[in-house]
Structure formats: C-alpha cells, structure tokens
Amino acid sequence: MKIQYQKLYGIIFFFLIFLFSIFFCFFKKETFSENENRVLEKSPKFTISNVLDGSFMKSFETYSSDHFPFRNFFLGLKTKMEKELGKEVINNVYYGKEGYLLEKYQKPTHSDQIVESLNEFYQNLNYVNMTLMLVPTSIVVNEEKLPSHAPTYSQVEEMKKIYDQIKFDTIDLTETLKKGNLDYPMFYHLDHHWTSYGAYYAYLAYCNSLGITPIDITQFEIKEVSNQFRGTLYSKVLDSSLKPDSIHMFQKENTSYQVYYVKEDILKTSLYEESYLKKKDQYSYFLDNNHPLIEITNNNLKNGKELLVLKDSFANSIIPFLVEHYEKVHVIDPRFYKDDIIEYVKEHKNLKDVLILYNMNTIDTDLGIRTIN
C-alpha cells in the first residue's frame, strides 16, 4: 500500500511539473510588471560564451522567476504561510504594528563615494545656495511600530556620518518628521514613500533653512484623490488583508503652471497625472513619474528666482510646495539625465538655489548621484 501511495505522489508531482512547463511555454510573457513597477527579464540568448561564463544560467533563472505561471498568487500564498509560521520579516519587509509595512534598511557601502561626489559637485558650483536633504525612511519615523527586537542598521548614524563630511548646507528631517507623525501620517502604510503630509513638513524645514516664509497648511485645499493605494512594499508581500492607503493632494487656489517635460517635448499645465490613479503605481500621480528633466514655470510669480532639484522619486510630492516660491523650478533626475549637470546650472544664470533630495534607502544604490560630476 505504501509503495502505491509513493507511485501516486510521484505521478502527481511529475504531472504538476509537466503542467507548469506547458503554462510556462505557452502563456503570454509580459514585458512589464505593473505590480512590481519594473521591466521583466527578457529571454536570454544562447551563446557559447555566455554559457561558459555563467551569465546565461543567471539570466535564465531571473527570466524563469519573472515569468513563473501565477507568480503573484504563489507570492501571496508564500506570505500567508510565512505569517502563519510567525515570521515578522518577509522579502526584507517587516510586518509592523497598525498595518505598517516597514522596509528593512541595509548597511550602505557607497557613503564615502557619495560624499566625495557631492562635495566635488559643490566646489564646481560654490556660488549657489546648495542644500542636501536626506530623508529618513518610515523605519526611522515609525520605529515604535517595528516588531520587538527587530535588528536594523541605524539610518540616523549613517546620515550623521554623511552630513558631518558635507561642505555645504544640510537639513536633518528626523525630528521634524517624528513630530509631524503625531498629527498626520508622514509615510504610507504599504509604500516606501512619504505622504503629502510628510512632504509638506519637509517643505516647512526647507523654508526654515533658507529663510522663506512657508504657506500655512490651512491655505491649501486638501483633497483625497485615492483610497486604494497599495504601493511598493505591498508588492513584496501581496497580502490582501492589509488596508490600502489614501493619497492626498494639496491645492492652492488660482494657480497656473507650465510643466515642460524637456526630453519628451511635452508641455502640460498640471503637476499631477490623474491617469496613474487608475493603475497600480499610483504614487506616479505626482509629477507624472520620473523624467530626466522637467522645467516648471509658476505663471503667478515674477520674482526671477529659480531652483534646481536633483532628486529621487521622494521629491515628486514636495515639488508642488516648492513651486509656490520660485518663478521657475528645474527638476533633474540623475538616474536618467545624461548631460552635464554642472554646465546646465552655469548656463541658467538665474539658478541660485540647488536642493539635492534623496531618501536614505535608495541613495546608496543610485548610480546617478555617485556620478553627478
């Protein structure tokens, strides 16, 4: 009887392998994962050289993983099983209190190179008011929501290490965001970005640093544009039991902008792209995702002041506040901008303020900021 069961299990096992092989071969292969907001691995080309150096198998493993049949279903099932087993960190994401997912912070490896690059950048442009704003992520601001005894490398210490070596102005947002978190959620529950409230509090800190009078929060109409936002951290666990976030936009009356996406040669009149609210990547509602270069003109201002923002995606939701104080805001994402940034600043004579804004989790892996010169 035992042998018969073994044979039955073997038949079922090989049948499942055969079935999934059929699915893998004949299912349509997508090129982009909306859930993970990334391009999927293409089928690798077979050559003798890439077989010998091991790159073919490495690419094929990634390709197989990216296009595994019912991948999202099995990822969600895996999360459910690991939760049942009591795991508190899944795919480098902590399950925190009050429905928060908190991205684990890895010890950085490029801080010295980043400091050297930024200081050299400043030395080439030392006539401008340059400010570095590093954003501590939710794992710092919502530290009390972490599971008990969760080990994590200190972002605050790493930020201090960087700031101590920077030769121009810096803004430490740690206490600002922690205090703001008592009144409003500074970060989304299921996404790594800060909320519009978090961006607003960072805007207050920026204004305070530069001696600018900020716009009081009561002067904005605050509108909920989505209550079904499941962001990047949700994509790592696919746990449908988690409550989605709301996205808010701050709008000031009688505003008029020209938003020019330079590389794409597209001119718009809004800082927001509503089509993203119907997609998975709803945070891209702010400033229409990431672009190499955007030039934003505030038609209501004629003060001759211009600002350059060098940034990651965190800046997309703070820029709607900054544009209220500058006739023109230039936005460069060094990950995609391939021209000389120093020359760009020198060519635009009215550029006197430069804000470099990155969150602590992505700056270490961002090749753009390390090669800014």
Summarize the entry for a quick read.
This protein has 373 residues and is of the alpha/beta class.
Architecture overview:
The protein is α/β, with parallel strands linked by helices. It is 34% helix and 20% strand. It has helices at 2-26, 48-52, 55-66, 71-84, 111-124, 138-141, 155-165, 174-180, 196-210, 232-237, 319-322, 341-347, 367-370, and strands at 32-33, 38-39, 89-90, 93-95, 101-103, 129-135, 169-172, 221-229, 245-251, 257-261, 266-268, 293-298, 306-311, 328-332, 351-359. Strands 7-6-15-13-14-12-10-11 form an 8-stranded mixed β-sheet, with helices on both faces. A hairpin with a 5-residue loop joins strand 4 and strand 5. The radius of gyration is 24 Å and the shape is globular. The mean pLDDT is 86.
Question: Main attributes?
Answer:
alpha/beta, eight-stranded mixed sheet, 34% helix, globular
Please specify the SSE layout and strand pairing.
Elements: H1 2-26, E1 32-33, E2 38-39, H2 48-52, H3 55-66, H4 71-84, E3 89-90, E4 93-95, E5 101-103, H5 111-124, E6 129-135, H6 138-141, H7 155-165, E7 169-172, H8 174-180, H9 196-210, E8 221-229, H10 232-237, E9 245-251, E10 257-261, E11 266-268, E12 293-298, E13 306-311, H11 319-322, E14 328-332, H12 341-347, E15 351-359, H13 367-370
Parallel strand pairs: 6-7, 6-15, 13-14, 13-15
Antiparallel strand pairs: 1-2, 3-4, 4-5, 8-9, 10-11, 10-12, 12-14
